[in-house]
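Write out this protein's structure.
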Amino acid sequence: MKRILIKDLVPGLVSGVEVQMPGAGPLYQENYFEWTPSSLVAKLQTHEVSGGVLRAWHHTAIFREVETHSDAEMFFFVSGVSLMLFMDIHQGQPVPETAQVVRILPGTQIVITENKAHFVPLAEGDIPVEIIVVAPKMAAPRMTLPVEIEGIR
C-alpha cells in the first residue's frame, strides 16, 4: 500500500485540475439573492452535456481504482469536506507515483481535464458530501491500481 499525505486543494496543486476556491469568484448581490459565477470554463468536445448531484458518505481514504474520461468534467462542491484522489495516466495506465489525495472544501469548483485519472470523492467527516457534476455524455472506464493508495493525515 502506498501512503500519501492528504493536502488541502489550492490552485496549481494538481496538474490537469483547474480550481476556483470558495469566495474567489466575483459576487453580485441584490436585496434577496447573491450570485457567484464560476470563472472556470471547461472546453468540452461535444454539445451533449448533462449534470447531476453526487452524494458521498464517510469512508476510509483507501483507493483501489481510478476512472478517466475522454472529455472534461466540472465539479461544484456544495456541502461537506471531500477527499479526492488524482493521478496521471501514461500509455493508458495509472501512474501511482503521481498520486495526490486532496481535501476539498464546500464552495470549491474544479474542472478535471480529459484523461486525468481520479475517483469519486468521499466525505472526510460525518457530514455527507454533496457535489453538482456537469459533464458530457461519455463513458467512465475504470482501472484497478497496481497498488492501493491511502490518504493519511
